[in-house]
Amino acid sequence: MRFESRTFWLPKDADETAQYQDAYALDAENGRAAIADGVSSAIFSGPWARLLTLGIVAQPPDLNDTAAFQAWLAENRAAWINSIDTSKLTWYQRPKMVDGAMTTLLWLELSPAETNAAGLATSYHLQSFAIGDSCLFHLRGGELLYWFPLESSGDFGLNPAVVASVDRQLDHLLAFKNRAHDCLPGDLLVLATDAVALWAVERLEAGEAVDWSRYWDCSDEDWRAEIDAARDAKQMRFDDSTLVLLRVIEERPAPTVDYDELLGPALITDDEPLPTLTEAIVPDEALRFDAPATEAVDEIRVGETLDVAADADEPAIPLAEETAAFEVDDHDHTGSPPT
Hints:
This protein has 339 residues and is α+β, with helices and mostly antiparallel strands.
């Protein structure tokens, strides 16, 4: 285990959780975390965002190997389309399938830099990758070291670079930004989708940096009330909002679990296998993925098809044009307001 976590999320409409298009996935054992913001004007972007974040933490793609990345992307695209029952699509949903779903994507990987006598990491090498406007804020001792991948509030546009679920022969435009940095136990890593990230950057530029650490002990109810207040005051975009806090720790061995003792002999038999992750969680919980992701990815890929009726009452919305991705940028962004 390489980090502890706190997570918060709030849909654009608090009463319509099924329309939540953001996603995140965490694997504390291997030091991986991913966050994504599905484009709401496209079709089934929420499932696409969740599929990619789970795929990232299960096995991050090698961006330096073009063929391997294309194979990884093709596998996830096939999983997305195979999960949709196209026979249930409405007349206005069918044209949207041509362009498919779209999402921004940011992920990080913590790998050991120094280890102790037991071979466990005491410090880390942090590698971050991003396309679009979901952001990472890296703090040490309460001070912001840098934020990534954008440079100012003016970089948050209405058409961020995205990863599409349909191959439109535009993959050559996908250019992930990347950044490497040392990471120490006690560091706080903050991942946020664009609504929360833009609010934080605007605060930073105004000389009122966000005290991210105070959210560690914040309740879900208090965090949601704060987001609602910021939306009402027009200080934050009225959009799906997601915040992930990771507190880096010295690596700990994975806990050993005795499942027979945990579940009890009466709850498990040879004829009744353990429930899968998908079967064991309630629908709302499926929006969030805090567990190691390998099993969850498999369940999405072989599970039941998506219920397309959720969009049935919504009018068709023109798709945003997919834009060229950002170029690779290894600039060191400080916590000071840009000049």
